[in-house]
Amino acid sequence: MKKNLRNIMFLFILTAMVTLVACGSSEKVTLEGDVDGATQIVTFEAKKDKIEKVEMKIAQTYESLNMSSKEEAESTMGELMEEAFASANESDGVDVSVGFEDEELIVEANIDFTKADTDALDEIGMGLGSSLDDEDLSLEKAVSDLESQGFEKK
Predict the structure, then answer these.
(1) Which of 9, 16, 125, 151 has a CA that sits 20 to 30 A from residue 81's CA?
(2) One CATH from 3.30.1490.100, 3.30.1830.10, 3.40.720.10, 1.10.10.650 for 2-153
(3) What is the pLDDT along the chain (154 residues), one digit of tens a residue?
(4) Where are the domains of the chain?
(5) DSSP letter, residue 103
(6) pTM of the model
């Protein structure tokens, strides 16, 4: 149970960290990739190469989590995952949701860096310290880093 939760949290944190470490006009870029059996979609919104918002969606089958059904996943991980993201969801600019579909677990995160509190971002594993600078939020670098990990633009 905890191993599966750790796997989901790890995938989420990995995507978020790559996004942030990597990461004139408004631009929107979407990339998709598979990491350890989880399909991940990351959409960036940026102005002049500075990421302002990111949307992430991670979908992982119950089978890949060694679970036989939606019901097993909900009873095993539901409360743990809600608790893991509860404090982040109380902060402005951060919204993380967990959904149990028929065949897969869905974790979605929307972060608005123009509003987000860096402490709230630290709580969901982004480890940014007390500030965000332009290099942390570079769209060009984020896209390049994700592409080097096998993600492709949609």
Answers:
(1) 151
(2) 3.30.1830.10
(3) 556 666 666 556 656 655 554 445 789 999 999 988 899 999 999 998 899 999 999 999 999 989 999 999 999 998 888 888 887 788 888 898 999 999 999 999 998 988 887 666 766 665 555 555 656 788 998 899 999 999 999 9
(4) 2-153
(5) S
(6) 0.76
